[in-house]
């Protein structure tokens, strides 16, 4: 019973005393954080605090110098980056990663591709099976597009759509891989005030619909405070504070290091 209770409480993402050095730069200095199932957790802090470095460690683009990162209890450090998406982690980047010359549906299908099992030899030897898998994939991605209000533009070239819609396509593509953990790196960058509000509503709906856990780096405090259940603050590669949005907003150390008078 005690074991079961411990498992129920165990975090989806556990970052434990992670250190990262790039030559002489000590980008992360023993940071720790937990993100629980179904939580939307904000990660904030001044430029250079180490937020993106942590995302890069989770997705294995950077290597930790010390410490450990676990997804549902499994250590990520031994895994190659290509394995990360299979583990249930999907990510969007600060810069748009949309293929402008592909349709919206094709962009989203890229996100689900690792489910197809559609290896080249397999496709040659078992074309019927490959076609069926492709059809299933297409149907699943079409469902994701419908959920995100993108059904009407499924066959439109992604590059011809407004920036805010392209941001939505990125989320759809990330969801197509059926992630347990969704990492969003400054998703509100470049959006207007109204678009940010709509984006926040969409992320909240996505959490409900897909039961996904979200870790979100963001400088837009309106979005962070309105959307997140909990906020972690980094400063100079270290944990500075952690708590509910209203607690973090009122924390003098956070105000001093980051929020200043802009809150
Ligand atoms: N590949 C790298 N090589 C050397 N230094 C790096 C590398 N990646 C990050 N850094 C350094 O690590 C520190 C943390 O950078 P990081 O990009 O993680 O900060 P951040 O909190 O995401 O900042 P921002 O809000 O500006 O995106 C910075 O000093 C940065 O210059």
Describe this structure in words.
InterPro entries: AAA+_ATPase, ABC_AA/LPS_Transport, ABC_transporter-like_ATP-bd, BCA_ABC_TP_C, P-loop_NTPase. One of its GO terms (molecular function) is ATP hydrolysis activity. This is Leucine/isoleucine/valine transporter subunit ATP-binding component of ABC superfamily. It holds the Pfam family BCA_ABC_TP_C. With 263 residues, this protein is an alpha/beta fold. It folds into 2 domains: 12-88 and 179-262, P-loop containing nucleotide triphosphate hydrolases (Rossmann fold, 3-Layer(aba) Sandwich); 94-176, Rossmann fold (3-Layer(aba) Sandwich), CATH 3.40.50. The chain has 11 helices and 10 strands.
Write a concise keyword list for the protein shown above.
binds adenosine-5'-triphosphate, single chain, Rossmann fold, 11 helices, 263 residues
Short description:
This protein is of the alpha/beta class and 263 residues long.
- Estimated helix fraction: 40-55%
Shape: globular
Average predicted local confidence, pLDDT: 90
CATH fold descriptor of the largest domain: Rossmann fold
Compute the number of strand runs. Answer: 10
| Coarse structural class | alpha/beta
Count of discrete domains: 2
CATH level-two architecture of the largest domain: 3-Layer(aba) Sandwich
Largest sheet: 6 strands, mixed
How do the strands line up in the largest sheet? 6-7-8-3-9-10
N- to C-terminal separation?
A: 45 Å
Residue runs with pLDDT of under 50 for 5 or more positions = 1-7
Q: Which molecules other than protein and nucleic acid are bound?
A: adenosine-5'-triphosphate
CATH superfamily of the largest domain: P-loop containing nucleotide triphosphate hydrolases
Kindly provide the radius of gyration, computed on alpha-carbon positions and rounded to a whole number of angstroms.
19 Å
Count of DSSP-assigned helices: 11
Percent of residues in beta strands: 15-25%
Secondary-structure element sequence? HEEEHEEHEHHHHEHEHEEHH
What's the level 1 CATH class of the largest domain? Answer: Alpha Beta
């Amino acid at each position: 019973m005690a074991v079961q209770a411990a498992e129920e409480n165990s975090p989806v993402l556990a970052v434990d005393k992670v250190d990262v050095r790039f030559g002489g730069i000590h980008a992360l200095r023993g940071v720790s954080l937990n993100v629980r199932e179904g939580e939307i957790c904000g990660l904030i802090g001044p430029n250079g605090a180490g937020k993106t470095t942590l995302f890069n460690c989770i997705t294995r683009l950077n290597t930790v110098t010390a410490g450990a990162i676990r997804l549902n209890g499994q250590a990520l450090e031994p895994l190659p980056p290509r394995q990360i998406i299979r583990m249930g982690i999907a990510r969007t980047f600060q810069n748009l990663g949309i293929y402008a010359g592909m349709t919206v549906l094709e962009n989203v299908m890229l996100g689900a591709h690792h489910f197809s099992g559609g290896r080249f030899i397999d496709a040659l030897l078992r074309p019927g099976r490959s076609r069926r898998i492709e059809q299933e994939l297409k149907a699943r991605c079409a469902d994701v597009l419908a959920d995100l209000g993108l059904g009407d533009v499924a066959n439109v070239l992604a590059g011809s759509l407004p920036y805010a819609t392209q941001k939505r396509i990125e989320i759809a593509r990330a969801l197509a891989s059926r992630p347990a953990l969704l990492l969003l790196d400054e998703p509100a960058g470049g959006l207007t005030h109204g678009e940010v509000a709509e984006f926040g509503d969409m992320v909240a709906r996505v959490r409900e619909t897909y039961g996904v856990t979200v870790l979100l780096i963001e400088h837009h405090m309106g979005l962070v405070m309105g959307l997140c259940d909990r906020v972690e603050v980094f400063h100079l590669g270290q944990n500075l504070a952690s708590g509910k949005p209203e607690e973090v907003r009122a924390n003098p150390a956070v105000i001093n290091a980051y929020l200043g008078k802009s809150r």
